[in-house]
Amino acid sequence: MTQPSIDRSAIRPIQLRELRLENNLVLAPLAGVSNFPFRLISREAGAALSFTETVSAKGLVMGGAKTRRLLETSPREAPVAFQLFGSEPEILGEACRMLDADGAVWVDLNVGCPVKKFIKNRAGSSLLRDLPHAGRIVRAMRKNFSGTLSVKMRTGWDSESIVAPEFARIAADEGAELISVHGRTRAQQYTGRADRSIIRRVVEAVPEVPVLANGDIVTPTDVFEMLAETGAAGVMIGRGAMGNPWIFEQALSLARGAPARRPTRAERLATIEKHIAWIQRAFTDSRALSANLKKYVSAYSRGLSGSVKFRQRVLESHDVDEILELTRSYFAVVKRTPALRDEERAA
Ligand SMILES: Cc1cc2nc3c(=O)[nH]c(=O)nc-3n(C[C@H](O)[C@H](O)[C@H](O)COP(=O)(O)O)c2cc1C
Q: Is 339 part of any domain?
């Protein structure tokens, strides 16, 4: 099999004032997924930074216990980027002030979420329809936060209004120090492909600010292709890391000139056991615990032999001990399916 060309120097640190990211591979904010246990797993697998699930600025300011839970972290995962959503500059400013007082080092603004509830509240990708207002939000956040401030956006509202390069410029002028771009419009939701040419235009619009390119990175070679095609400072990986946190170490491995080795069965099982233990510690409520176990063990089984049946049994179970038993017996003996998994293209 011919090797795609790999520019090994594409993996490099990112320096942001006094904060240095050891490499340019980052875990994306994923609501319901990038919680504390999964962020730790991703960091251990080599991601230099992870983003929290999106957190309501209003919820934070109002002192909501549920919101606070989403912000749980530990020095072990420092630095972590807290992603906020909202629509009012004063509220986002106040949320930043509170996080600053709590010692947070990184806050990110959600300008991408396409979900109706967000749009109705003029948050998420809705902000792409009113750039001066979105700019005022960034300004209010900057005024109230001394750490790293970043913005994550989609390319535009729809294909007729590609505003990411323009908004990146506005955000940078208002003090954003890093920009992440998911190469899809709000109208696309998750259909089609992430448009790398628009990400490149964002990179060119803010030459002094590092840009993280995001969308559809599912293999370690995708990392290098994305960086080569966009000129971005780094990549942000979301769905491609779910069930496959090894994508981070595989990309780092390629950058060292080594093969992108798949985890052995024992290594896979060890990671899953660790993840389970952290989930058990993080979620004491039995429904949340069971839902989280199901979500992640199912993701880890993707592409493995007999995984459809395994997932079916796990999803049907209402008993945590049974889920654990099913998981341990499945992953202790499982083989990969004969069809090559994606990451093997790079191995
Ligand atoms: C389940 C799920 C939850 C997400 N939650 C968030 C979120 O909270 N904040 C955000 O900015 N983007 C969110 N996204 C978008 C991702 O961060 C990312 O931009 C998108 O999935 C494209 O990257 P990928 O192809 O690597 O997954 C979410 C995506 C998914 C699939």
A: no
Give 145-157 as a DSSP string: --SEEEEEEESBS
In a domain, residue 325? The reply is: yes
**Could you tell me if 290 and 41 are in contact, meaning their C-beta atoms sit under 8 angstroms apart?**
no
Lowest mean pLDDT among 10-19, 149-158, 305-314, 327-336: 327-336
Catalytic (active-site) positions: 113
Could you read off the pLDDT of 154-167 as tens digits, one per residue?
A: 999 999 999 999 99
Q: Is the C-beta atom of 347 inside 6 A of ligand 1?
A: no
Residues 178/215, Cβ–Cβ less than 8 Å: no
pTM of the model: 0.95
**CB 200 within 8 Å of CB 230:** yes
Q: Which CATH number goes with the domain that contains 276?
A: 1.10.1200
Partners of 181 in beta bridges: 153, 213
| 57-92 pLDDT per residue, tens | 999 999 988 898 899 999 999 999 999 999 999 999
Whether ligand 1 lies within 6 angstroms of the CB of 171 is answered as no
Identify whether residues 229 and 293 lie together within a single domain: no
Cα(28) to centroid(ligand 1), Å: 6
Mind listing the pLDDT tens digit for each residue in 281-328? 999 999 999 999 999 999 999 999 999 999 999 999 999 999 999 999
Same domain, 216 and 299: no
Please name the residue that has the structure tokens 């959600």: 110
